[in-house]
Amino acid sequence: MAASRLTYGINYRLNTLSSNFITQPSNENRLGFYLQDEWKPTQTLSLVGGVRYDLDTFIHPTVSPRVALLYSPTPEHRFRATLSVAYRPPTLIETHLDDFVFITLPPPTPSPPPTPIRGSNNLNPEEIVSYELSYQGWYLKHRARIRAALFFNHISQLITFTPDPMNSGGQADIYGGEAGAEFLATRWLSGFANFAYQEIGQSFTGQAQRAAPRFKYNAGLRGDWESGLSGEIAWHYYGAVTYPISAAFSQFQAFGVVPPNPRVGSYNLLNLRGGYRLWRQKAAAGYLREAELAVSAFNALNDKHKEHPLGDTIGSRVMGWLTVKF
Question: Are 157 and 189 in contact (CB under 8 A)?
């Protein structure tokens, strides 16, 4: 017999902003209605469909549908296909900004005049259309879990500052996949590994361009012994990526401004953690009280890198912890 479960609701949000870099104190009303139905025609097949209707002070109403098909041939294996549409309305800063950009250069070089930046009430919401196929399965009597997914995202109407807020006329397709596994080797040893890959095809230009590493790898082990000792080791690899940099850096080169290198090279992160549980006691309410002394090393190999061309250089860091739970 087919089963159905209906979910519905309404939400309201009032955003306010008052600052000396906007035209005036501003308010934004957001009202949303949502409806979702989960239909299970068989024991192995489920269909979930939903829709949101959103009203916003500064944009036309938006309709965001979502549908997902789930197939579970056995309780340990599940396949999922999803399609959804979502919007991001402009913020109060993007609609009411009223400010200047100042660049101060060391003498004797004269500083350029300030550049005004103005918000706009004629912005459209950003839109993303998403497609996803995924699988999750349990193996070895639930001692191992395998996950895999393929995705495709279409992005349009991005809001950018050039220098004033405006909708970019381009679009981007971001697609790729991810696969991972978690396992319990023994009572005291567990681990994980995953891999992600993505490509970006786009017609956006300037700072509207999307950028992200093409490859990411992660792997780790965790040990937790009855003696109170625990340890973790995690390795992360991030591929090289080139980020868009504001054209202002090039415009002001004549005044001594040196544009940053837009390319961030690949880097590795090795994070270590060791701990010792000093005390554990079961409370009358049933939860555990405990105290742990631990030391952790972030970027233990000291692979100095930046996560963004305008960010700080990141090196190694060692910290100690005393955690007490009552």
Answer: no
